[in-house]
Design goal:
With 172 residues, the protein is mainly α. Helix content is 69%, strand content 0%. The longest helix is centred in the middle third of the chain and has 75 residues, at 33-107. The chain is elongated. It starts with a helix and ends with a helix.
Length: 172
């Protein structure tokens, strides 16, 4: 019987009648949650890293700007101290020069004048000099322009001739 069973299996195919319809297999459920969390975690990490780099850049720029303001403030203070130093040096030289002048004057026997030793003299200029020094009043812009033109021509003649101009120009 064992031989017959072997013969049946080997020689005669087992015919089963199955329908040619495709059997629908149920879908396997895939877990999308771990994959979704990993993508979200990567995205959040990239954004956090970008924000940290941007914050570091802004912080470094702010530190540079603060350092520049501090440097400018110190330069202004140095310039003010140098001006004060120069002013104090000049004041020291002035005070030293006055003391030296006083010492030299005392060595030569000079004294500061007192009110009883001061004499005032009245000095007046001759009338011709006073009149020549007073400017002539110009009545219009044309008169002022003419006088300015004559003066400019007088200077031009003096420069060209390398000497004083004619007496007519010298009077104007």
């Amino acid at each position: 019987m064992a031989a017959l069973a072997q013969r049946t299996v080997w020689l005669e195919p087992d015919v089963t009648t199955e329908s040619p319809a495709v059997a629908v297999r149920p879908r396997r459920r895939t877990r999308t949650t771990p994959l979704l969390w990993s993508h979200t975690a990567v995205a959040v990490s990239v954004v956090a890293l970008g924000a940290a780099l941007l914050l570091a850049y802004v912080h470094s720029y702010a530190r540079l700007a603060e350092g520049e303001f501090h440097r400018q403030r110190l330069q202004t203070e140095i310039a003010q101290l140098q001006r004060d130093n120069i002013a104090l040096g000049l004041e020291l030289d002035r005070l030293g020069a006055q003391a030296r002048v006083s010492e030299l004057a005392k060595a030569q026997g000079l004294e500061l004048p007192t009110m009883d030793r001061v004499q005032y003299a009245r000095v007046t200029a001759p009338a011709a000099v006073v009149v020549a020094q007073a400017p002539k009043p110009a009545h219009s812009w044309l008169a002022r322009a003419g006088a300015s033109f004559l003066t400019a021509m007088g200077h031009t003649v003096q420069r060209i001739s390398r000497g004083p101009g004619t007496p007519a120009y010298a009077q104007d």
